[in-house]
Amino acid sequence: MKALIFGVTGQDGSYMADLLLAKGYEVHGLIRKSATGNTVNISHIISDQDVFNKQFFLHQGDLADPTSLYRIIAEIRPNEIYNEADQDHVRWSYDMVGYSSDITAAAVARILEIIRQIDVNIRYLQPCTSNMFGKVESETQDESTRFNPQSPYAVAKTFAYYMTRYYRQAYGMHASNVILFNHESPRRPADYVTRKISQSVARISVGKQSELVLGDTSAKIDWGFSGDYVEAEWLALQQDEPDDYVIATGEAHSVQDFVDVAFATVGLDPKDYVKSSQEFYRVTPTSTLVGNSAKAKKVLGFNPKVSFSDLVRMMVENDLEMEKN
Question: Would you identify the CATH topology of the domain 189-221+252-289+306-324?
């Protein structure tokens, strides 16, 4: 089996590479020019001489460049494509509307059309986001919940969702959407609130930082582990028929909960270090979103293994180890 991963250097892309390599796949990853020096998430793969350039291959290209996409897909002829690449930062999308629309939305249409032209039998996985639900009245959200996106990023992902469904219905392609609720890991970039917290707590505990400034710590979020969620993505492409699935834990925890567990991990009181600033509040906040993954559990056998507390501790301990080295 051959798989092509767009965004292989990112959080989800790197975990997907780990999963597929463990399953014996020949794994190919797209890497863009601006990311060539940012391979920390796949450094363990690159340094393994028994894997790199034998079972794992990198290709230069960009989602903004359809020529490179066509060349890579035509050359590899993968069995499966996982699109883990986009502009996925909600706050950035307010200031980068055009770029977010192109890379998160239009690029999906480019990929799907290229697959249609080269080989409609290639299976395609499109990760989407719970942010597409935006402001809702229901306590939980599933595959039937109406979308009401509240950011350029969420609007772009909604386009990607419907484009994937269109190609599935119009051309019989095995193209599936997974609507992922928030999912974190030690590989999360530092400009996301979870990694900002874990990294800051680690630095505070070793005396390298004096305070942590956050936005609305009362906001509640359904948080899971990236490694669990990419396994659900893989399971979606193994089904006989393509479909759409909500992937979530079904539990909501506040940012303050995350802060409390993080500081408890290093034996400190967050009240001594945490401050709030309007600078980090969202322009258009969403409702509290909690996913209902009953369909994914029934059809895919999705069963998240890492709990919320274990996830927070995993991130803090990883950053603590980095700060000590």
Answer: UDP-galactose 4-epimerase; domain 1 (3.90.25)
